Amino acid sequence: MIDAVAPKQRARSAGLRPAWLVAGALAVLVATLAGLAFGSASLPPGGVAAEMLNLIPGVRLESGLTDREVAILMQLRLPRVVLGLLVGAMLALSGAAYQGAFRNPLADPHLLGVAAGAGLGVTAVIVLGAGSTTEVPVGVPMAAFVGAVTAVALTWLLGAAGSRDRTPAALILAGVAVSAFLSAAQTFLLQRHVESLQEVYSWLLGRLATAGWHDVLVILPYALVTGVIVLSRRRELDVLTVGDAEAASLGLHPQRSRYLLIIAASLGTAAAVSVSGLIGFVGIIVPHTIRLLTGPSYRSLLPLSVLFGAAFLTLTDLLARTVAGDAEIPIGVVTAFLGAPFFVLVMRTSRAVPT
Amino acid sequence: MQRRRLLTTAMVTTALALAGCAGQDADEPAATPASSAAGFPVTVGAVTLEARPEKIVSLSPTATEMLFAIGAGPQVTAVDDQSSYPADAPKSDLSGFKPNAEAIAAKDPDLVVVSNDTENIVAQLGKLSIPAFVAPAATTLEDTYAQLGDLGALTGHRAEAEKTGADMATRIDEIVKSVPARSRPLSYFYELGPDLYSATSKTFIGSIFAKFGMTNVADAADASGSFGGYPQLTQEAVVKANPDMIFLADSKCCQQSAATVTARSGWSTVTAVEKGQIYALDDDIASRWGPRTPDLVQAVADAVGKVPA
After folding, report:
1. What is the domain extent for residue B262?
2. What's the CATH number where B162 sits?
3. N or C: which end of chain B has fewer CB within 10 A?
């Protein structure tokens, strides 16, 4: 359970410990190196290391890699690893932000209907021909964002707003209903436009498979905006956890902070989803594991979610692209295999959560 | 957009099921002698027709092409929303993807042809006493010829069906023979979608390329067959395999072209990209196993012929 009666003192004492920051940075480093070292093409580790060192200005090492091997490393593997880091960081950070803003430990972009909303938005622009998942960098993320915000607003209105005694389950059930509704709308659209079916499905199943530098450039600005907004509010999240009345007494505008956090988290989720497809559960697995390890304060939770989320998704993606040899396994499948049992665990251990 | 490729992309398992049941009716005995209108009653597989069907509904683009090719076109009263060829096929809004028994029954057919039994459509139609023939996706040309024969028997066009099949076989043989043998086999990547789903040598499409002695770079990704012949390749695997040629079966659905493939980051070192050996196929022809298959073979032959020996 997250701190129902968290005294301010406790939140303060549970600031970010340098040891955890170092651990997070190490995790990112290890995941990055593993992501670069392995893949369906086996590249000599020495050559990979040399090429990586060559990225440092002034270094010029002979890697011994062929042109094709360099292309595989620099144009396929490196952007995929970087994209995995970004997407994982954003999904984990957004999940943590949602959990704080909603004061609900089960909140996750996937479970709040955000992913389904983004999916509907993307489907709509593809079907209407206003955007293509393989080309235009603006239409798809923006449509995903509009869909995501609409979905989270609906979920909130149906499941949490206007009542003091709602349980965390009410919000999640509302999310389930909103997801189902939006998925149905998406299916309806697709049935009218069968010609777009393949493009939409291939996007739904995850686009990390065809990641390139283009995708990284597309989501980088969104990632930065989300990161800056959410991370700069980490103290406010701790105060929101205590309660709205208390927050107001501390001079905070609880609803305004909450809106801003939710919109920022939705932006991050939408951007991640628009390049990576529907990858679920990262936003619940990562923040909760960190809570178990370092305590509930958002001041440490948010930065660590960024680091461990990045490492987690990169390693998951490594699994997705290597376990079946030359073939891909959709990464959403891997995260769901890990995440669904985890969700049940969180549900069973967070009986007394505040609403 | 064809259901076969859709299924492949959306639900690999379904494609597996399709491939698994393909060819099950290849050895059906011809029940009756070959004089067309007099050939009834006729039994093919699980379907028995007392008289020549005059109101046929086809829910499979391939079956539609076959029916028209064997002269049964005038008997076809409705085809599904994906049957795009021939142009005069009576297109309707019926879906072969999500077949609706009531909508089909409203056409009052005396024979329905489907490519797979999704949604238990055969049993549903059976309750309405409407015979439904399943013509599953072929995995070899022999399956195609057998299916033509089955449809010929069922529609009273046995002789035309045999001739259509024989003509196809002759034309394909001639095309294949017209392409000179190579000292080194060409390798190819066959792209079903921009997400790099492909078809291995164990599929119908793979069997076409095998006729030219070409090697398929997707084979390694599904050596065990657990992806049903339709694995999704990693980008690394394709670039590493360095195919000599790339064939695009996603030019209509997903606007892929030699230009879009060339623009993909990291692909510039692939021989097919370097030498401009990227060929867009007609999605429809490439994803059907029907009478236009020789056109596909011709397209492959033309492309192969352009590659310097």
Report:
1. 182-306
2. 3.40.50.1980
3. C
Together in a domain, B56 and B163: yes
Same-domain status, B157 and B189: no
Summarize pLDDT for A330-345 with one digit per residue, the tens. Answer: 888 888 888 888 878 8
Q: What is the pLDDT of residue B291?
A: 96
Residues B163 and B46 reside in one and the same domain: yes
- Interatomic CA distance for residues A329 and A292, integer angstroms: 30
* Per-residue pLDDT, A164: 60
Categorize the per-residue pLDDT at A302 as very low, low, confident or very high, splitting at 50, 70 and 90: very high
Average pLDDT over residues A11-18: 63
Q: Assess whether B235 and B152 both reside in one domain.
A: no
pTM to 2 decimal places? 0.79
Going by pLDDT thresholds of 50, 70 and 90, the confidence category of residue A226 is: very high
Helix intervals (H) in A193-328: 197-204, 213-232, 234-242, 244-249, 254-276, 282-294, 298-322
Tell me what the pLDDT averaged over chain A comes to. 84
Any chain A CB within 8 A of the CB of B134?
A: no
If asked whether residues B127 and B215 sit together in one domain, one would say: no
The larger pLDDT score, comparing residue B286 to residue B19, is at: B286
Tell me the shortest Cα–Cα distance from B50 to chain A, in angstroms: 37
Q: Which CATH number fits domain A83-349: 3.90.1150.100, 1.20.1250.20, 1.10.630.10, 1.10.3470.10?
A: 1.10.3470.10
Q: What is the pLDDT of residue B181?
A: 85
Band the pLDDT of A4: cuts 50, 70, 90.
Answer: very low
In a domain, B4, yes or no: no
pLDDT of the residue at A133: 52
Average the pLDDT over A292-311 and give the result. 92
In this prediction, residues B195-217 reach a mean pLDDT of 94
Which of B286, B308, B284 lies closest to B299 in space, CA to CA? Answer: B286
Of A67, A71, A210, the CB nearest to B194: A210
* Cβ within 8 Å of A, B 237-276: 237, 239-242, 250, 253-255, 260, 264-270
**Residues sharing a CB contact under 8 Å with residue B302, sequence separation 6 or more, in sequence order:** none
Least Cα separation, residue B11 to chain A (angstroms): 10
In a domain, B13, yes or no: no
User: Based on the domain organization, do B267 and B197 belong to the same domain?
Assistant: yes
Task: State residue B140's pLDDT score.
Answer: 93
**DSSP labels, B14-81:** HHHHHHHHTTTTTTPPP-S-S-TTT--SEEETTEEESS--SSEEE--HHHHHHHHHTT-GGGEEEE-T
Same domain for B202 and B156, yes or no, is no
Q: How far apart are CA A20 and CA A124, in angstroms?
A: 42
Task: Name which of B95, B97, B240 is nearest A72 (Cβ-Cβ).
Answer: B240
Residue A203, CA distances (Å) to A23, A127, A208, A319, B3 in order:
34, 13, 9, 19, 18
**Which of A79, A212, A327 is the closest to B231 by Cβ?**
A327
- The structural domain count of chain B equals 2
Which percentage of chain A shows pLDDT scores above 90? 30
Q: Which residues contact A284 (CB under 8 A, 6 or more apart)?
A: A95, A106, A107, A108, A110, A111, A339, A342, A343, A346
Cβ contacts below 8 Å, chain A against chain B, sum to 123
Cα distances (Å, whole numbers) of residue A75 to A67, A78, B13, B225, B296: 11, 6, 31, 30, 33
Minimal Cβ distance to B266: which of A76, A194, A209: A76
Q: At what angle do helices A298-322 and A78-102 cross, to 10 degrees?
A: 140
